[in-house]
Amino acid sequence: MELKLDIPFKQLLELVRQLPPSQKKKLQKELVAEVPQTINNSLKEFLLTGPVFSEEQIKTIEDTRKSINEWRIK
Description:
Blueprint: H1 9-17, H2 21-49, H3 55-73
């Protein structure tokens, strides 16, 4: 069973402030443990599935840089 609530942030913050210290620590541990794993997984997935340059595109970029550098020196 899944239950979703739409609680405004201020109200949620007040509820958290009412927790006893032991439950606040437990909540904090859960939040800290959850965030880095989600960020790392989504970043890793993004990087692994992102677009990459082909050899031909890299060659074109290198040639363009070389031409621009030659133009600037003259």
